[in-house]
Amino acid sequence: MMTTGMLKEDALKGKVIIVTGGGTGLGRSMGKYFLELGAHLVVTSRKMEVLENAAKELEEETGGKVLPLACDVRKYNQVENVIEKTVERFGRVDAVLNNAAGNFISPTERLSHKAFDVIVDIVLKGTYNMTLATGKHWIEQKQKGTFLSIVTTYAWTGSGYVVPSACGKAGVLALTRSLAVEWAKYGIRLNAIAPGPFPTEGAWSRLLPPDVEKLFDPANKIPVGRFGEHQELANLAAYLVSDFSAYVNGEVVTIDGGEWLQGAGEFNAFDKIPSEMWDAMEKTRKR
Ligand code: HXC
Ligand code: NAP
Question: What's the CATH code of the domain at 193?
Answer without folding.
Answer: 3.40.50.720
